[in-house]
Amino acid sequence: MGWVAAYDSGVSLFGGLALAVGTLLAGVVLGFLIARSRRTRARRRPVGPTVAELLHRIVQSAHNGIAVLNQFGDVVMHNPRAEELGLVRNNQADERARKAAEVVAATGEPVEIDLAPLESKGRQPAAVLAEVRMLGDKFTVVDAADTSEAVRLEATRRDFVANVSHELKTPVGALALLAEAVQDGADDPDEVRRFSGKILRESTRLGTLVTELIALSRLQGAERLPEMHSVEVDAVVTEALGRVELTAESADINVTADEPSGLLVDGDRTLLVTALSNLLENAVAYSPAGSPVSISRRLVGGYAEIAVTDRGIGIAEDVQKRVFERFYRVDKARSRATGGTGLGLAIVKHVAANHGGEVRLWSEPGVGSTFTLRIPGHRVNGQQLPVRQAMPAGETTELADRNVGQLRADHGGAT
Fold first, then answer.
1. Any idea which fold 149-224 has?
2. Which fold does the domain 227-410 belong to in CATH?
3. What are the backbone angles phi and psi of residue 272, rounded to the nearest 5°?
4. Residue 340 — pLDDT band, cuts 50, 70, 90?
5. H/E element, 53
6. CA atoms within 13 A on the CB side of 406
7. Which stretch of DSSP H or E encloses residue 379?
8. Rounded-to-integer distance, Cα 298 and Cα 304, Å
9. Residue boundaries of the structural domains of the chain
10. Residue 405 has pLDDT above 50, yes or no
11. 185 phi and psi, to 5 degrees?
12. Helix, strand, or coil here: 347?
């Protein structure tokens, strides 16, 4: 029986070894599978910036100027925009920001401060408004924004209100005085007729002013513009000439136009006629008696160009951009004498813009001026219709150049 016991003992030992080996192999396999799974997940997991890195990128690319100050007022972090706005110079915060940071650190309440430049320096913004807030752990953040455009618009609004008040008060006051004069001269027919004529002129001027104010308001977005249609440029020129015919005859101004062009544009005919009429009336108003005013038209680079040229007083270069401002007048005395409202060129500018075009100006004092209204030509399915062959690329692209030589020749070669 001894050999049986020995056999049983050997079998038991062999079974134990087999179990141990099997367990070891299972562990190795399991470990391999786990490791491979982790490597696979690691490969699949996207590698990207940390939250801190993302926050840093946001600060650096922010449109506003941002600077973080410690409890001593030192700049510990800022973005390039902070330097552009003058919030940080040479790694030092603006003194106004530092003082505001001290107040915020003491009270815990945010503070708004004006960081407008104390003196003009190149392209630095004219107005900067900043807010200083607590970040915790004795750190504060200064968030500065360029408010130059908002300040400019507010100044424009104030000027507009002041100008409108003045322009309306003048004819209204005149009407009141003239009405009293009519009452006082009720027994004198000649006086009544004279003052009645003045009342009619002032009331007409007042009505024109109100009409143009309403038109300008609509063009600036208060009301939606009518749908665009195909409009004949020649028809616009003809109607505009008809509107200024009497005014030109009264001023002894000869208005001429070139040959019909066959050009078409996409737009609103009434607005285009109004714009061109304003340019013609402006040319007549600022031209001496007996001088000519001309209209020319052509297609250039997909734009229909209508140019109005006069031999009038001209406009100095330093004020040429201002002539399109509301109520701006080159010659205030002449404009008031002709009943101008100062809104005509502003309306032309907005009509052109609302049609996807522009208005250009060439002028020299004592020589004359050319205003060119440029409107995109008519398109069908996105394609420009070949109404008229555009000028070759090597030729001029502004109608003003066509008239400059003649204008100078008429004035003895003036420059």
1. Helix Hairpins (1.10.287)
2. Heat Shock Protein 90 (3.30.565)
3. -65, -40
4. low
5. helix 51-61
6. 13
7. strand 379-380
8. 6
9. 57-146, 149-224, 227-410
10. yes
11. -105, 30
12. helix
Residue 279 contacts residue 247 (beta carbons within 8 Å) = no
Helix-then-strand count for the chain, H and E: 11, 16
> Which sign does the torsion angle of CA 164, 165, 171, 175 carry?
positive
Q: Which residue has the tokens 């304003």?
A: 278
| Identical topology for domains 57-146 and 227-410 | no
CA 371, CA 275: separation in Å to the nearest integer?
11
Q: Write out the two tokens for 236.
A: 């616009």
Q: Which residue in the block uniquely carries the two structure tokens 């078409």?
A: 264
Q: Which of 96-105, 154-163, 287-296 has the lowest mean pLDDT?
A: 154-163
The Cα–Cα gap between 309 and 294 comes to: 5
pTM, to two decimals: 0.52
- β-bridge pairing 65-69 and 139-146: antiparallel
Strands, E assignment, 90-195: 92-93, 111-114, 128-136, 139-146
CA–CA separation, 312 and 361 (whole Å):
14
Which tens digits make up the pLDDT trace of 350-384?
A: 888 888 899 998 988 888 899 999 999 876 555 55
Distances (CA, A) of 34 to 22, 23, 41: 18, 16, 11
Instruction: Quote the Cα angle for 225-228-234, to 5°.
Output: 115
Sign of CA dihedral 299, 301, 302, 303: negative
For residues 255-274, average pLDDT: 89
CB 218 within 8 A of CB 268: no
Pick the CATH number of 57-146 from 3.30.365.10, 3.90.1150.150, 3.40.50.720, 3.30.450.20: 3.30.450.20
Q: φ, ψ for residue 292 (rounded to 5)?
A: -90, 155
- pLDDT at position 20 over 50: yes
* Interacting residues of 80 by C-beta distance below 8 A, sequence separation 6+: 60
pLDDT of residue 28: 52
pLDDT at 271 (0 to 100)? 86
Question: What tokens appear for 340 in the block?
Answer: 């101008």
Output the six-digit token pair for 249.
């005859």
Residue type, 157: R
Neighbours of 387 (CB within 10 A): 17
* Residue owning tokens 């249609």: 229
Q: Read off φ and ψ for residue 370, nearest 5 degrees.
A: -130, 120
